[in-house]
Structures are given as C-alpha cells and as structure tokens.
Queue: 4 jobs
Job 1
Amino acid sequence: MPRLAETPQDLLSQSEALALSGLEFMQKILDGTNPGPPIGATMGYMLHDISDGRAVFRGTPEFNVTNPMGTVHGGWYGTLLDSAMACAVMTKVPRGSVYTTLEYKINILRSIPLGMQVDCIGTTDHVGRSTGVAHGEIRGVEDGKLYATGSTTCIVMKIAT
C-alpha cells in the first residue's frame, strides 16, 4: 500500500534514488517500501498501478481543488496528468539517471464531478538517452468516460555511472 512522505527527511537521498532503475523506484513507492510525493495528499490522488512504460494514479477531486465557479480547477487535471505521464517515463529511466518534465499540454474534455473517482493513465511513446515522450488520459472509474487527455516531453539526465 503506498504511503506519502510527510517531511523532507522521508524522501530518498539522491544516492539512494540513483541506485534504483526508474521502474524499481516506482515499484517501491507502490508497495510502500519508499514514500510517494506529498503532492498526492495535497491534491487527493495516489499511485495505483505501475508497470514498464505505464503509470496509473487514482484520485477524487473534492471541494479543496475547485476554482471560484465551484468546478474542478484546471490545475488539478494538469497536476494529475503530469504525475502519470512523467512517472510512466520514469519507469524507463535507467539506474544512475533522473528525469524531469520539460513541458506538458492538457485538453479538458468535460468537467469531473466533485467526489467522483478517476484513473489517470500515463503511457510512454518514446524514452531515449535524453528525452522521454508520453501521453495520458483521465477516465472515470465507474463510468469509463474520458475527461481529459495530455502529452508530455521529459528530459532524461545521466547523473552517475
């Protein structure tokens, strides 16, 4: 069962993180060995499934992520999609390397009702020595409807040998 970091000391050191492949790193978050990022608590989502080239986050938007009109803020969609797409890229990053998002784009297709559980699925299209490209979608768990899509480009950097 995943758990989230509550203090900076809960996170892995750079050397501990670099000793793992990206897939190993993500698997250890999913099984609770290593903590996940605290943004999940802030935004109401958590890593749900991980495999080679694929990351699934499950979340439920509540009132605390609404805009002034009372609907889910676009930043919630973007943050959720960025997490899933970038973590899908992470699963392809080799031991001794790190990654970060360079850019991402989202398309919101319909409003997610407050309190509705969604899955955000990130899937890699390409991960090489220096770049990773992925796409993602947010779908309702119960209704299967597509609520948003996204795409990302990440930079992959070799830090250690």
Note: The chain has four helices and six strands.
Job 2
Amino acid sequence: MTQTDKVLYTGKTHTTGGRDGASRSSDGRLDVKLSSPGTSGAGTNPEQLFAAGWSACFEGAIGLAARKMKVAVPADAAIDAEVDLCLVDGAYFLQARLTVSLPGLEHDVAQALVEAAHQTCPYSKATRGNVDVVINLV
C-alpha cells in the first residue's frame, strides 16, 4: 500500500450476496439492493455504482481545476458516465466513457479542465492503464 501523509476519508461498506445481494455503508447513508446487469432484479449493479462514483468525483476534479485556472464551472455542467462489463475469451474486464458537458465555456478552456481533471481524479488514476477510457467533451 502506498505511503500517505493523511487519509482524508474512508468509505466503508458491508456487502452480502454479491451481485444479487445488498450493500450498506457503515454510516447507513447508502443502503442498496444489488442485481446482476440485464436481469429483472430490483437493485442496481456495481457498474452503475462505479459510473456514479466516477462521474461525481470527476466533476469535483473539474471544479478543482477550474479554481486553479480561475474559471467558473457552469451551473449546468454534467457528466454522463458509461461503464461496460465486457467478456473476451472467458475474461471479464471493464471499459468506460465519460461524456462531459461544460456549456458556455470556450472549447479550449473546457478541454483544459477535462484534461486536468483526468490527471487528478482518483477514479481516473485508479483506472489508468487498467481500463480503456474515452472522454468526450460535448
């Protein structure tokens, strides 16, 4: 494990039943039923949770980059995240697309924010070299 100066936060969950079970955070704020993708189950799935977490973190990283560049993030900024569960030759893997909307910003400024966010977002760092990622700026 990497040496760290300070742990800012630790998310803790307890999961039972795997993809067809349930997951609950230690503080009770997250309490979800899980279902395998493509089934009629009532719950969400790990890929949806990963997409939600990554897009929220990425938008936060855009905000950090914007503050450093002294640029205001548009109030209607949005990120659509897609995380694919794939199978090739019996091996599972993920691939992802982030579609970023920063309306009202010059394209060059928006692109600089997206590139900076992709360098600082912890999810982007964790997936780099492990998950094929396409980031589209619209």
Note: The chain is about 30% helix and 30% strand.
Job 3
Amino acid sequence: MSRDTQLKERWERLVDILSNQFSQGEDLDLDAIIYLIGVQELGKVHREYKKDEKLNLMHIAICRLLEPYGFYEFDYFDEDGWPHYIVKEQLPSLKAGEQSVLMKEAIVNYFLEREVID
C-alpha cells in the first residue's frame, strides 16, 4: 500500500472516529480537529473558550503536531498551565495542498502515538 493511500485511509478513519465522538457524526474539518488537539494538549476539556483562546489552542496544537518534524520545541508551561513553544526552524513555503497533507500526516501520527487508530 502506498504511503499516500495509507495516509488517506487513516485520515478518513480518524475523521469518522472523532466526528462520531464530538459532532454527532457530522464530519469534522481539519481546523476542528486541530482545535480538539489544542484542548487535549492544554488539558482543560470541560470549559468554554473565548475567540482568542480558541486561536491560541489551535496554535498550541500546530506547535505540538509539528514538534516531531523539528519546527518547534516545547519550552515551558506558564502560570495558567498553557504550554509555550519556541521556533526551531522556519516552516518551508508550502502550497495550500501541501500544508494540508503535512498537517493531516502530523495529526495521523499524533493519534497513532495515542493508539486511537492503527
């Protein structure tokens, strides 16, 4: 099975699992899944977030997802428990489709590590 086919199948399986768990079966998009990862990484799942906090949660998720690729490194938790990352390497210029593939791959790897999918 090609790497692209495997990624596509894992991505679809993951979207099904998360959509059934968090949106009554309506497919979650990439941004929604990134937001969920941010909430998971913060560890404060049962609360409402303001718009700017939601953006910060997505930033946390992106940093965490791209950390294994060498783009970010965890730095510290602040007094409110929010994780902070430092930029290790600038992201390359990618076309929208390439960005999407990179993020999907990183998300699939994140959930493989947590044994949500195999």
Note: The first helix runs from residue 3 to 22.
Job 4
Amino acid sequence: MTVYVDAPIWHLAGRRWCHLMADDTDELHRFAFGLGLKLSSYQGPPKTSAPHYDITAFERDLAVRRGARECSREEIVAVFRRVRVTGVGERRGRVQRKAA
C-alpha cells in the first residue's frame, strides 16, 4: 500500500496545510496514527467523498520521512478519484474503492 501527500499550499490559521491519502483506508489510519494524528482529524464520508487527513507542513515533513510519497497536484487528484466513495458507500457509511 502507498500513502501520499501533496504540497502544503493551503493557508489557514497561520499554517500551511496539505492532504494525506492512501490506497486503503485502514492503511491511511495506521499511518496517520503513527504520525500522532487523532481520528478526530480524519475527513471521510459523509463529510467528504475521499478519505483523507488534512495535515500541516510540519506533519507532512514527518510523513515523507516515514515513507509517504510526495505527489503533485495532478497526482493527488488522481488518488482522490481512485479512493473516492460511491453514492452507496456514502449512504451506508462504508468506504468503497472505485474500480480503476
């Protein structure tokens, strides 16, 4: 499994933010917990259609040191599309991967 991070280009509350995503939601959570992130910072259905964590530039640096793959904007959008939940998954609260 692969964990991905994009560039920290989003500015909020005096910090730069980016996205942490993975091919598998369980892997995403394991990696995030290893970074010290709390489940409360997880964003997934029904809040958003693609499971991810918003992380700071500092957390991103740690994620990269721990093996996360740095992605361009185009690459992270492709990951978003791959892991996006279907309408059925949103209604049931389950994450379903879209067929490639």
Note: Helices lie at 25-34, 57-65, 73-83, 87-92.
